[in-house]
């Protein structure tokens, strides 16, 4: 799989790409500001991750014939369009990068490797009610972590605690949809529908506001 592009609906698409070296000519679409940002990344692997994630955004936009506008990070670290149109979210993990685009609503996307050690650190990001329904299984815990990460990215503000402000409803390991909500913040009672898929040893989740 070099690139996988999926139309979610008439307004949204996601793209998944293998992280690899990108020839300079493939990055001509980047804005001047983005090219400067790329030049300032000294670590070779991080440069590949950064460039591949931007190509993933472009692939998602191309599926709607929307020109790539360039993106910058706001004061909360969320990627924003330079022309103020549409919403994106980016993620990467070992070997893969992904991006999601929506024309009208905020989005969040996350990818994580399934690792055994996550079960031992669940107390750091899980409410006690979530610990009660989750199996002591790395997949179940990774799904919970990733769902919260996607919700966090979608709401787009710093200062939101995974354990204290994001609550997931009970779900099974094979559930394709995970429901969650933010509480104790300005977004009280907003419910998020998080979709997920498992690719080998990687979990991918995404949500649309």
UniProtKB/TrEMBL annotation:
One of its GO terms (molecular function) is magnesium ion binding. The keyword Secreted does not apply. The keyword Transferase applies. Pfam families: ACPS. Keywords: Transferase. It comes from Algoriphagus hitonicola. Residues 106-192 form the 4'-phosphopantetheinyl transferase domain. SUPFAM superfamilies: 4'-phosphopantetheinyl transferase. This is Phosphopantetheinyl transferase. Coiled coil: none annotated.
């Amino acid at each position: 799989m070099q690139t996988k592009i999926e139309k979610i609906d008439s307004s949204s698409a996601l793209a998944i790409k293998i992280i690899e070296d990108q020839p300079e000519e493939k990055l001509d679409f980047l804005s001047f500001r983005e090219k400067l940002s790329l030049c300032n990344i000294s670590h070779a692997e991080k440069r590949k991750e950064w460039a591949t994630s931007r190509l993933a955004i472009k692939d998602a936009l191309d599926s709607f014939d929307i020109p790539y506008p360039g993106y910058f990070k706001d004061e909360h670290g969320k990627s924003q369009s330079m022309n103020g149109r549409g919403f994106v979210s980016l993620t990467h993990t070992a070997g893969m990068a992904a991006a999601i685009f929506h024309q009208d609503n905020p989005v969040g996307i996350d990818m994580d490797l399934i690792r055994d050690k996550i079960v031992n650190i669940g107390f750091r990001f899980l409410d006690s009610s979530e610990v009660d329904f989750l199996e002591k299984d790395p997949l179940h815990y990774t799904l919970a972590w990733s769902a919260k990460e996607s919700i966090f990215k979608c709401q787009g503000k710093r200062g939101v605690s995974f354990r204290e402000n994001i609550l997931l409803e009970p779900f099974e390991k094979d559930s394709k949809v995970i429901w969650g909500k933010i509480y104790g913040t300005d977004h009280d009672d907003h419910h998020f529908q998080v979709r997920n898929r498992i690719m080998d040893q990687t979990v991918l989740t995404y949500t649309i506001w």
